[in-house]
Design brief:
globular; four-stranded parallel β-sheet; 12 helices; TIM Barrel; about 425 residues; Urease, subunit C, domain 1; 17 strands; alpha/beta
Length: about 425
Amino acid sequence: MKFAAGKTLIQNGTLVDGTGNPAVADAAVLIEDGKIAYAGPAADCPESDATTLDARGGTIMPGLVEAHFHATYFNVAELTDLDIKYPVEYVSLLASVNCQLALQCGYTSARSGGCLFNCDFWLKEAIENDLILGPRLSTSGREICSSGGLMDWNPEFRKIGMEGLVFIINGVEDARSAVRALVKDGVEWVKTYPTGDAAAPDTNDHHTLCMTFEEMHAVVQTAHNHGMKVTGHCRATEGIKNALRAGYDSIEHGSFIDDEGLDLLLERDVPCVPGLFFEKASVERGPEFGLPQAVIDGHQETLDGGAASALKILRAGGRIGLGGDYGFAWTPHGTYARELSFFVKDVGFTPMETLTCATKTGAEIMGRGDELGTLEPGKLADVLVVDGDVLADISILEDRSRLIAVIQGGDIKAGQLAPRHEATIPDVG
């Protein structure tokens, strides 16, 4: 991805730099050749012949990081639609639109939480080569699930197959083979399913253990040997602890963590990405899309447990990333910032805590905390300029029309000041 040459001075705004430090009123951010040269009080900013960008009294902050991104989910009502209905060529085109939407929503970076046909590796290549617009990607690929687990549902499903979405494994050797196949596709993260979920239309609910510890450990050993990281869909209490003991690098959801699990998480400094707005939307809009009441009740339990776990982790000093499972009919792409509003209004995070999770911690989860996530000298100039006080009303971030500029590497890629048209995702139902 090319850096913008020259200098840009962003002024007349309040700085929220992503570090968690207090906001700075009447601030300035100086960008030089695509990197942050200064961020702080305007009065202390070095003199410069830079082009100026007026923040209009709003907020200057790091670009957002979507920490659990599914580019190849395209607003489906059923998971069967992901693999069975559409060929890889069409999925790739839809995914490129989702990437553009993410950038237009202020998300300058994203970590994949699993991807059909390993498309996100090539999406990353296209974005980095400036062929399409999108967030800087940390890639994943086909997910790993044990036979009979969450992503291996019923006889019809198994007969048709989910080859584009998951590897179905039986035992340690299958686990190693699946990881080695991902190595050849060049992905950075291995996504697994150690536990079930309320959404499962069978007996694999959110308290079910779907992978053995031995399988999980084999995944970690093999992935780490090849320089890849491992994460897992972990809701069940024992599944969370198994993942941490196996050496997982991240926990997705962590819905029912107990004190022992929390101690393990903190000891190993493993981040957790709760992905909670999906649960709220499933409860509220489930009847509209024909979700069985038992499934809706399961989502309510997961919502309650996940919110309590997320707050417990944060208050204990753990790291929380924000993002989760957008691309379903009730959580469509382009609405990612609802997650941030939810964590403030429903979970009990402060706006500053939420923004830190959605910037600094997200970049750390991607493995790029030294480059991204905060507005500090030397880091890449991925900056979001917002019309309004985000700390006073975080829901402003839900409104794309309030984004003055979405900047990547010093270049305005989206927002009011970008010379580009907004993308829309087609109805594929």
